[in-house]
Design brief:
Blueprint lengths: L2 E5 L11 H6 L2 H7 L3 E7 L12 E10 L2 E12 L2 E7 L1 H4 L16 H21 L3 E5 L4 H9 L5 E6 L7 E3 L18 H4 L8 E3 H8 L2 E4 L2 H6 L17 H9 L3 E3 L12 H18 L9 E9 L1 H8 L1 E2 L2 E2 H7 L3 E9 L1 H8 L7 E4 L4 H10 L2 E4 L9 H7 L4 E4 L2 H6 L11 E3 L4 H21 L1 H13 L4 H13 L1
Parallel strand pairs: 1-2, 1-6, 2-5, 6-7, 7-10, 10-11, 12-15, 12-17, 15-16, 17-18, 18-19
Antiparallel strand pairs: 3-4, 4-5, 8-9, 13-14
Length: 485
């Protein structure tokens, strides 16, 4: 295979919204360094997408969609050796649609299902004209692309990368009656593959369509790959396959589903001098952060992230009359720095604890403060319900900050238990709700114990974390093996 089309709804630094943008902004370059020719295809969104200055109009074409002809302008650019095609369309990528995701309130996925179906349709002429050897699509929004490629018998290999199975693009059959993508329902081969496997929902599932019509599917970590093939266990906050476990387990058994761990872009290679400088910066930053606390010598826990269910719910769960976070704040020897924005209910929960003297709280996004907390904390708190891969724990480790994580998804693949040789962090899980929450608290207590009672062991843990590197070069090697299968 010589030429890959890498199609993504977002890409940093031009239109990043989440983790897909991180991956799209780094993986194609690592693939090209290993000898593969890559063309990235992505929308040119209205105001937030700033294409490179060297971007030039390479062509204009018309796409039949929803009963009308939509004008698409294709702009070509080259960024550090990788070709990028930006697709401009006034109807679906500008005006009220000038951001990567709209998140419709009245009908979930309504606007984005329509927009990304158009993106899928707009990519078909490029695929025919440029004739890549393979097409790699990212997440549910490009399920229609793989479905139409299969329906039209295009010869390219079809690869789907699942960044988060929680987003499936489910939308009622009645809602999209008359849409172009609904035409696949009339095809006896593809109609069943487009329907959500829960018949009572009477919905289409665009992610399922992509899963079923891809030649190969990968998730962004090996453990997450296995987790999505299992049934949900709500009683212990385990989402499993979230309704698609029959499909994913079938793909796994057929050898069509695999997990490839994401990489991370680091600021230089690790070294002994780098470790020394990092620990010095760490001590100075912790000292500055700890001025806010009556007992600055305490262990400093740091949380930086979105206050949403996936990242934050476990901290709000009640246990023995108080929330988990209150139990943590009640522990002797603990200070906590939180930088978070997100759902109103979680922000209100945090605001209700703002008077705690061992809590520093900032409900606003601040890149400088985020870096300071990641660097200055003794332990980085990341108790996710699930984590397809996660980059935050990789970055915290490079700053000699051991993470405290749930043993799930990419967290289990990147963090080694502190009590094993070469350990890099702390972790927890549990067979029931109560056991899970108690084990979370036990992990915090163990971090406090190690910090105060075994300072050399804690320093070794920080050092081990610093030396960990998860590179895009290693990930690219695995992707190239996947493409050749």
């Amino acid at each position: 295979m010589e030429h890959l089309f890498y199609i993504t709804p977002e890409i940093k630094p031009f239109s990043q919204s989440g983790g897909i943008g991180d991956v799209a902004g780094e993986l194609p370059w690592a693939l090209q360094e290993r000898g593969l020719r890559v063309t990235v295809v992505t929308p040119l969104y209205g105001t937030i997408n700033r294409a490179p200055e060297a971007c030039k109009l390479s062509g204009t074409y018309l796409v039949p969609f929803q009963g009308r002809l939509e004008r698409v302008e294709s702009f070509a650019a080259e960024v550090s050796g990788v070709a990028i095609r930006f697709l401009r369309n006034e109807t679906y990528f500008e005006n009220g649609y000038s951001v990567p995701y709209v998140h419709s309130d009245a009908i979930p996925f309504y606007d984005d299902a329509l927009r990304f179906s158009f993106l899928s349709r707009a990519c078909l002429p490029l695929i025919r004209d440029l004739e890549p050897d393979a097409v790699q699509a990212n997440d549910w929004g490009l399920g229609p692309l793989l479905g139409w490629m299969a329906q039209q018998c295009l010869p390219q290999k079809r690869i789907l990368t699942v960044h988060n199975l929680a987003y499936q693009g489910t939308i009622g059959e009645e809602v999209i009656r008359g849409w172009d993508v609904a035409g696949l329902l009339e095809d006896e081969r593809f109609g069943p593959l487009l329907r959500d496997p829960r018949p009572e929902w009477r919905s289409l599932n665009l992610l399922r369509l992509g899963l079923e019509t891809a030649h190969a599917v990968n998730t962004v970590s090996p453990t997450y790959c296995r987790e999505i093939t299992r049934p949900p266990e709500p009683e212990r906050f385990f989402p499993g396959g979230q309704g698609l476990e029959e499909t994913t387990s079938r793909l796994l058994n057929a050898g069509r589903l695999t997990g490839i761990l994401n990489g991370c872009r680091y600021n230089g290679k690790p070294s002994f001098d780098g470790l020394k400088r990092t620990l010095e910066r760490k001590a100075a930053t912790k000292s500055r952060l700890s001025r806010a606390f009556p007992q600055p010598e305490n262990l400093l826990l740091g949380f930086v992230g979105r206050a949403v269910e996936q990242k934050f719910r476990l901290l709000t769960e009640p246990l023995r009359g108080r929330s988990v976070l209150e139990h943590i704040l009640d522990m002797e020897g603990v200070n906590l720095a939180v930088l978070a924005t997100g759902l109103p209910e979680y922000e209100r929960f945090l605001s209700g604890l703002a008077e705690r003297r061992n809590l520093f709280l900032q409900l606003a996004f601040d890149p400088g403060q985020a870096e300071a907390i990641s660097l200055g904390s003794d332990v980085f708190l990341m108790p996710s319900l699930f984590e397809p891969c996660g980059l935050t724990q990789m970055r915290s480790m490079s700053l000699a900050t051991p993470p405290l994580v749930r043993w799930t998804g990419g967290l289990a693949d990147t963090v080694l238990p502190h009590d094993r040789e070469g350990g890099t962090g702390f972790g927890f899980d549990g067979p029931s709700r109560e056991a899970l929450l108690e084990n979370l608290l036990a992990a915090v207590r163990e971090a406090v114990r190690l910090y105060f009672e075994a300072p050399q062991a804690f320093l070794d843990l920080q050092s081990n974390a610093y030396w960990q590197r998860f590179t895009w070069s290693a990930a690219a090697k695995e992707y190239l093996s996947l493409y050749q299968t």
